[in-house]
Amino acid sequence: MACDRFEDELADLSSAEDFLDYFGIPFDVGVVQVCRLHILQRFHDYLARQEAGRTPEYAAYRAWLARAYDDFVGSSAQQEKVFAVFRKADGVSFVPLSALTG
Questions:
Q1: Are 85 and 40 in contact (CB under 8 A)?
Q2: 21: how many CB neighbours lie within 10 A of its CB?
Q3: Got the DSSP string for 53-98?
Q4: Residue 65 has what pLDDT?
Q5: Chain-centre distance of CA 98, in angstroms?
Q6: How far apart, in whole angstroms, are the C-alpha atoms of residue 72 and residue 53?
Q7: Within the chain, which residues score under 50 in pLDDT?
Q8: What is the pLDDT of residues 62-78, one digit of tens each?
Q9: Predicted TM-score (pTM) of this structure
Q10: How far apart, in whole angstroms, are the C-alpha atoms of residue 20 and residue 83?
Q11: Residues 43 and 65 sit within 8 Å (Cβ to Cβ)
Q12: Burial 31-62 (b: 16+ CB within 10 A, else e)
């Protein structure tokens, strides 16, 4: 039943700060304020790569969250390209004025 308790506790967390505090990961408030959604999405992405059906474990979740946070400590959302908008920005992002007024 410890797994059920862990999952219930996770369900109560709602912000990046909540997750970082819950897992005891020290963090820079400035980094989290700028990259909160990116950190949580990266954390989700790391968890999604794990084997399907694995029982959630505190230590594994903590390690993935710490890694997700660390990804943004020395980088930026634009460099990490977590969301599609940043991945697409590497492609053609110029729209000529004539295409808008045509």
A1: no
A2: 13
A3: TPPP-HHHHHHHHHHHHHHHHSS-HHHH--SHHHHHTTS-----HH
A4: 95
A5: 38
A6: 28
A7: 85-87, 89, 102
A8: 999 999 999 888 865 55
A9: 0.73
A10: 21
A11: yes
A12: bbeebbebbbbbbeebeeeeeeeeeeeeeebb
